[in-house]
């Protein structure tokens, strides 16, 4: 750890009216920088401005994008009871879909037919050549689908 100081200098600036600290790691090229939370951070789980912005709605994203979760939207609007009710409905929808897949697989197996495993929409499974681990590799067609607003291959998960 002592040798690390040769390459990284940690700076800590304390803001007068806050207990928040900014830590900046300076190296040959800046990799990460910590930021202060927003003024009303206590209302937003002490998230930074960036963390809050990461879940902002964006036009044209896939219908399966987690920012489209209706329970999450309601929660962020402070409608806790409605959000919880919608969350329960979504979870039951997921359970029903799983039961349907399991039933279809069981019927196929009992009929001597193969049942194809789940295939991700935007990724494909490959064996990583060095480690031999199974990894999911981006297929590359998401951006074309987004550009054309063609989400026909997305499942209805919400």
TrEMBL record:
Residues 93-118 are annotated as: Disordered. InterPro entries: OSBP_sf (IPR037239), Oxysterol-bd (IPR000648). GO terms for cellular component: cytosol; perinuclear endoplasmic reticulum; plasma membrane. The keyword Phosphoprotein applies. Residues 93-104 have a biased composition (Basic and acidic residues). One of its GO terms (molecular function) is sterol binding. Transmembrane segments: none annotated. Keywords: Phosphoprotein. Belongs to the OSBP family. This is Uncharacterized protein. It comes from Rhodnius prolixus. The lineage of its organism: Eukaryota, Metazoa, Ecdysozoa, Arthropoda, Hexapoda.
């Amino acid at each position: 750890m002592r040798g690390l100081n040769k390459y990284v200098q940690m700076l800590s600036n304390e803001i007068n009216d806050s207990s928040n600290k900014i830590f900046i790691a300076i190296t040959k090229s800046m990799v990460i920088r910590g930021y202060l939370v927003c003024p009303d951070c206590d209302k937003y789980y002490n998230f930074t401005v960036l963390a809050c912005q990461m879940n902002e709605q964006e036009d044209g994203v896939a219908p399966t994008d987690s920012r489209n979760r209706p329970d999450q939207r309601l929660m962020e609007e402070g409608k806790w009871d409605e959000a919880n009710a919608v969350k329960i409905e979504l979870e039951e929808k997921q359970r029903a879909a799983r039961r349907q897949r399991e039933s279809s697989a069981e019927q196929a197996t009992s009929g001597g037919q193969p049942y194809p495993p789940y295939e991700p929409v935007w990724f494909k499974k490959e064996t990583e050549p060095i480690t031999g681990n199974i990894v999911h590799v981006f297929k590359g067609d998401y951006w074309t689908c987004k550009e054309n607003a063609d989400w026909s291959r997305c499942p209805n998960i919400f």
